[in-house]
Amino acid sequence: MTRWAAGIVLLVLAAPLHGQAMREFQASHRRGDTRSLTARVQFTAGTLHLRAGPPGDLYAMRLGFDAERFSPVARYNAVDGRLTLGTTALGSAGFRVVDHRQLEQQASVLLAPDIPLDLSIDLGAGLGDVDLGGLQLTSATIRSAASRTSISVSAPNRGHCTTFDLDAGASEISTDQLGNARCAEIRFQGGVGKATLDLSGQWHDALRVRAQMALGELHLVFPTDAGVEITLDRTLTTFRPVGFTRQGTTYTSANLATAKRVIHVDVSTAVGGIVTEWKK
Amino acid sequence: MRRPSLLLAAVLLVLPVGPLMAKGGYPATSGALAAPIAFLRQLFHVGPAPTVRDVEVVVSSDSRTLILHLSDGSDRTLTLSQGRLLIDGVTSGHYAPGGDLERAWQGLLSDAARLPTALAVGRFRDWRPDGLAGDDASAADAMESRLAKLEPNPAAVASPQAIPAAAPGGLTVDLNDLSDLEHLGPELYRVGQLSPADLRITVPGGQARLGHYSLGSGQTLDGHLLVVRGDADIFGTLRGNLATVDGDIVVHPGAAVTGSVLAVGGQVREAGGDIAGGVLSLNDAFPGPQATAPSIVRPWQRVATGTAGVLGVFLTLTIIGFGLVAFARPQLEVVGDTVAHSFGRALLVGLLGQVLLVPTFGMMVVGLALTVVGILLVPFAVVVYVLLAVVAILGGLLGAAHAMGETWTRRRLASGNAAFGMNSYSYLVIGLAFLLALWACDIVFGWVPVAGSIIAALAILVSWLVATAGFGAALLSRAGLKDAFSGRIIPPEALTDEYLWATPQFGVPAIQRPASTRTPPPRP
Questions:
Q1: Contact A135/A158 with Cβ under 8 angstroms?
Q2: Nearest to B278 among A16, A24, A29 (CB)
Q3: How far, in Å, are A42, B348, B350, B502 from residue B355 at the CA level?
Q4: Is ipTM > 0.85 here?
Q5: What is the pLDDT along chain A (280 residues), one digit of tens a residue?
Q6: Do B181 and A72 touch (CB under 8 A)?
């Protein structure tokens, strides 16, 4: 009995003491006379929610962060309209996710809906829930290192968008109504994982998509009323086209010549699979 | 006629104390005189009312008592106990036990126990329990009349005042960029840790204030403002940035702040005023890398931390090792024997294994991904591979420790000394102790220039060698499943190592090791 008790005491004493000081940080800024915004959201670990905010506010952020490892960032330069939000790792030794509790961090970001916005999002480990609907995007870049990210564009973009870049390291990315972003070009670069590019939405004329995938599955969703042309460069990739006619490395949908909207897709993959789907 | 005589007596008692009070050196009146003096002062309203120096709450199963320690050394008590209200021990009313008054009183005392004295006194003064009737209402009136007269000790309240600038090299809080929280946060954290007497802060281009601060509606303040331990009420115009530590920021209607505001340990309330810059709030100051002023780690702290770490590792490995001995002793012993008898080969194989560990993993994943069916197995294969690698490395290390312990024990026995124990558990503990002894040396002597580095390097090298040899032995012996372990030149049938250790010098024929167990039975 005594040995057991001694053992338990030793175990208790040897148990690692771990502290996580969660703090809450809030930041906001009125729009003022800001003409355009270049926003960068960097969130290393945890869950990020990003939406369009109410008119009149430039941004609003509510952040729950681990004060032992991170420092909040809310930096806005009114001169050049640059905004940086999120967290930065403390110290100079970089950042490592060593505890699942680091993923308990939460960030909720609201951005101005009525200002031309050049948006860049950097996600580390965790979850990303991004809805770009209602924003005035001029360009967007979303980098996801090792997270599960959901990107939707629930309402058509109010501005003119040039490029939409998606960069997934070892992540799972799913998009919904990406066409609503109305960007002239959508570029996707995937490392390892699974990605869904839903190109439906209210967009006009032509849309160009360039997708590169190293290892994993790429799921392409097209609106039924759009003509689609896929140029494929694959190494060890399975491709199951539905409703396409093959001409060498090019696959075309039957309505390509007659459709009012056309999607040109260039896909380059190494190992994995490509799946196409039509969506009404 | 009696009133003048009483008055005279009171004056006689109070007069000697007056000069002391005027000097500000009012000593705590103690002993038997304290209570009468306080009573007479209160009775005749002579001199200032004593202030509350400290608050004490005593709660038991049948009573709830508030004890107020006053500045004149006396105490006041208010107690609700078993249906009776006692004020300074005298029954002053009655109440319904478990009723509204008792609940309200309980809540007040709970709050008071958590608050600083000054705030607690404010809470007492404002206490107005609602919805009382009958005895509860009468008792509450009596309590309120006592509590409403309380004054906090002025020394305990941070009276509004300017904070003097720090000496050159002292604490400087730069409020030019409130968004630079990585640097500003730790500085404000330091501010929050300082006592009022130690507050010396330089605010470049601004000023620092202690206690509540209010900027009037017609006023304009140029420069940054730092308010410590108090709210900042802005009615006028502040041309600069505003930060508070342990206080709220309230920007009232018509007020304007041309810069940004930051509340650390407080909130920002935009009550109709205009804030041109950012609105930031942090619910608490946070300790960053610079927050703890030059962190001086004392040698004993370093040794204690290191020792705890080594003990923790030792305990963890011991527990895992005991589990292995309990459930897989033959395999552990085979791995250990492989290390002992084929150290060179085990080391080479371990090295090779380490080099090939990652490429093999990559090849396996790619190979599985090449096939449609195989790609589904990738997650499982990854988990299994990692688990096998961990088992091989950890099991190999423990097997090596076992071998070390067994070798040492046998040598001691061979030289005629008493051994710690003759079983796998003790071998394991001894081997791990040897392994971690080097790290213990590093902890104790790591601070020594040059020698400390050498010891650390030696500890790393030896640990790596043992782990590599153990890993190689685990591979050679197929995790101990290959009974006739690899590396033996002689055939397994001829396997015995007893002649090495257990044979006395004068020559007793060695016996063959039993096939069922490789651990010699414990000594009788």
A1: yes
A2: A29
A3: 36, 11, 9, 38
A4: no
A5: 444 554 444 444 434 434 456 888 999 999 888 899 999 999 988 899 999 999 989 999 999 988 878 889 999 998 899 999 999 887 654 445 545 555 578 999 999 999 999 999 999 888 999 999 999 999 999 999 888 899 999 999 988 899 999 999 888 899 999 999 999 999 999 988 889 999 999 988 899 999 998 888 899 999 999 999 999 998 888 888 888 999 999 999 999 999 999 999 999 988 888 999 999 8
A6: yes
